[in-house]
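Task: sequence in, structure out. Protein: Alcohol dehydrogenase 1.
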Amino acid sequence: MSGTAGQVIRCKAAVAWEAGKPLVIEEVEVAPPQVMEVRLKILFTSLCHTDVYFWEAKGQTPLFPRIFGHEAGGIVESVGEGVTDLQSGDHVLPVFTGECKECRHCKSEESNMCDLLRINTDRGVMLSDNKSRFSINGKPIYHFVGTSTFSEYTVVHVGCVAKINPAAPLDKVCVLSCGISTGLGATLNVAKPWKGSSVAIFGLGAVGLAAAEGARIAGASRIIGIDLNPKRFNDAKKFGVTEFVNPKDHDKPVQEVIAEMTDGGVDRSVECTGNVNAMISAFECVHDGWGVAVLVGVPNKDDSFKTHPVNLLNERTLKGTFFGNYKPRSDLPSVVEKYMNKELELEKFITHEVPFAEINKAFEYMLSGDGLRCIIRMDA
Ligand SMILES: NC(=O)c1ccc[n+]([C@@H]2O[C@H](COP(=O)([O-])OP(=O)(O)OC[C@H]3O[C@@H](n4cnc5c(N)ncnc54)[C@H](O)[C@@H]3O)[C@@H](O)[C@H]2O)c1
Ligand SMILES: [Zn+2]
Ligand SMILES: [Zn+2]
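Result:
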């Protein structure tokens, strides 16, 4: 047990006081972990677009003050009552969706939508007592998706923590805690393209490029990348994308452009933008008879998906996924091993690095569409 176990820890955290306003590094108090919780020392965290959506809170339920962050790597500082499979010193990746290992979903081979710990973006407190573990002068600060990794220490439910190989460099594998595993799994576990097939990827951020990487690993022969940002096309070549389409270059819907390029449609598509029109295009660009579209992007609260039912009658399939259908505790350690065995390269996703004090720069990079993932070093 560490010397701080059972005590309140005072440390630095980046607090979002208001929607869309720069985060402020504050000294916060982090309470000890309660029943089935663990307290983590975060060493590296990175920024995913989902943090930015809920920080902007334009199409989402606002909840402030809040500590964002869900893509990270760290070390267990102490564990709460009832935690038996983690101990102080373990290397871990926290995950925004959990695995209790007991519910129907956790027992099903097909689902990772745990009844107890599935993603809940509106909840800002811990499950066991509906309270926050973070405070400033006694005033609670809300959690985000059960992880809140923009803090030197955070408290997470044990079911949302994957124990990984301690030899894995946390400054690289932290990106597997959300975006890269999500994109990779969306293709390999859900879209399941076959050797020689054609795959369209909508949105060439880190999640979409990880989906492209999955298509390359599966042996797809055509990987068509679609993005509104022409800067993305250069990055995409390193991820096996073979052709590019910028919807802005065409005066007809992008699904028609893709259908023409592919003799009726692609075999598989994966949507990684969060834009509802791109979701509809991703569905309508798959071939009839066998085409499968997989939605990954997080939509706005009031979005609705509209397509003609005949698109489904024509034997197309529409699916969606959280975290690429990986079960966080059971499956993530083996995704880390893919990196360790050099089957999966992570360095090419990491385009920036900033010290914790400059965390707002990571938001600027994401908003300007510059680069893919920015690693935030907590000790710097
Ligand atoms: N389902 C999940 O489990 C899960 C997990 C992680 C992230 N996400 C979501 O995945 C999406 C991608 O995340 P990211 O971190 O890679 O974001 P990102 O901002 O780095 O990438 C998104 C890309 O989509 C492009 N884009 C936006 N609208 C478009 C449109 N209409 N047509 C074509 N391209 C368009 C942008 O130019 C950008 O390059 C986000 O919506 C994020 O919230 C979902
Ligand atoms: Zn994410
Ligand atoms: Zn469960």
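The chain has two domains: 9-177+346-377, 182-322.
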